[in-house]
Specification:
Length: 287
Amino acid sequence: MTIKKVCVVGSGTMGNGITQVVAQAGYETTMVDVKQEFVDKGMNAVKASLGKFVERGKIGQGDMDKALANIRTSTDLKQAAKDADYVIEAVFERADIKLPVFQQLEEICPKNTILASNTSGIPIGLLASATKRPDKVIGMHFFSPVPMMRGLEVVKSLLTSEETVKVSLDFGKSIGKETVVVKDSPGFITNRIIPLVMNEGAKLLEENLASMEDIDKIVRLSFNWPMGPFELCDLVGIDVGVDLLEGIYQQTGWERYKPAPLLKRMVEIGYLGRKVGKGFYPLFGTK
Ligand SMILES: NC(=O)c1ccc[n+]([C@@H]2O[C@H](COP(=O)([O-])OP(=O)(O)OC[C@H]3O[C@@H](n4cnc5c(N)ncnc54)[C@H](O)[C@@H]3O)[C@@H](O)[C@H]2O)c1
């Protein structure tokens, strides 16, 4: 199967990042969202990101112009997806929003179109159940910021065909990503690990074993990680961390994924991390 046209559904943080890398790789790319203002915001983010790459000398102005020329935008899913070979859905992380999108894509897209989701944890099999082509539904779990992060989890449901996996792996490679295939299970690989780091950090602080800064410092220096658990919480979003933990806990009952009470308190008081300008830093420290 040859992929020429790609449709990205959702122009938020992930959707615009995915649109950028797909367009840079030379695919005709249509980014669609529900309102023109969201699409415009997504396009501005793509332009700003490409501009930074040019400024830093990573790509030339000609590359930026070519990538932008490959992008179309739309607020009409039918028009955007009707002749797509590959669709990547990146709308809100809610099954009640994603499922209707997959139902519509089933109606709109040609029979051979592969329907991928960038979900962080909604079962791919569930999304596939909204279609009549479960063998062509797959998870393509990108990481933020998409143009910078090389990893890509390719999530295979019980019904995803080997052909769909193969096409998706080739596609991932063609847009510059390093892929791994993972079975459709709660949290996949990455979201099984990251929320545990956040949770354990919060538990250490609850137990008053060391200061927040010291916990971050020893983790950074000992593992050569770019950040410790609290810096990570503030970057990812404490609400996002709690949602990931609760999602896995509800699906599996595994105690280790029960969110630490401190994380829940932080969400309740609106200390969600960098995106709102307040999180673990500065509440428990001075940084
Ligand atoms: N942000 C991350 O770090 C990250 C990382 C990996 C995966 N994800 C996953 O990617 C997906 C998108 O996350 P995000 O951070 O980009 O969210 P976001 O809130 O930044 O963007 C979501 C976009 O989807 C649009 N949208 C909602 N319903 C739509 C519909 N029916 N049709 C078209 N567009 C619609 C919204 O208007 C919004 O612009 C989620 O499933 C999330 O779990 C996010």
